[in-house]
């Protein structure tokens, strides 16, 4: 998990979500990019999240739409496959709001390669305030037995803490864990939008309790 912050904002409760978008007054599009080695579960996680509300935009791009507080939220989830094969900056790297970095608890190299993916993204995406860009590290296969684990939860937590990265584990077999990750995505997206809108332009470090509260609220919406 990421580290401390010196200020917080009150988080207002949002009304229940709905997929009826006919009366929405505002449309919010959010681009979520999933990076990581092959075979760590990127595609499974994306498809599990969008579920029955899936809208296939093109190969590797899924959309989940829902209404919250009279706003239409469209989460465009980009599942990248072998992005190393592109000779130029792939379109998946452009205009990203949140980046998920996925590894497998039973594949040590996939965890070690997270540094590579972070570096590649920052270089190729050419984003502003790269040092404070919201990454979420996702450890798949939390349900594997201890003898099959090659990276412990504590090791991953410590590494993410030291690098100011949010970390959580999932199982693509359990929908609730997938919803929790995307709840974190929405929580970090909201905070970043609020902080970028400050007149000072200062990006505060993540306040854990605030993100947790927002995450819980969004998870409820995703269950509807």
From TrEMBL:
Family designation: Belongs to the small GTPase superfamily. Rab family.
Name used for this protein in its record: Ras-related protein RABG2-like
Tagged with keyword Iron-sulfur: no
Source superkingdom: Eukaryota
Residue span of region Disordered: 1-20
GO biological process, one term: retrograde transport, endosome to Golgi
One cellular component term from this protein's GO annotations in UniProt: late endosome
Annotated keywords: GTP-binding, Nucleotide-binding
Native source organism of the sequence: Dinoponera quadriceps (South American ant)
One Gene Ontology term of the molecular function aspect: GTPase activity
Gene3D superfamilies: P-loop containing nucleotide triphosphate hydrolases (3.40.50.300)
Biased composition (Low complexity): 1-19
Record flagged with keyword GTP-binding: yes
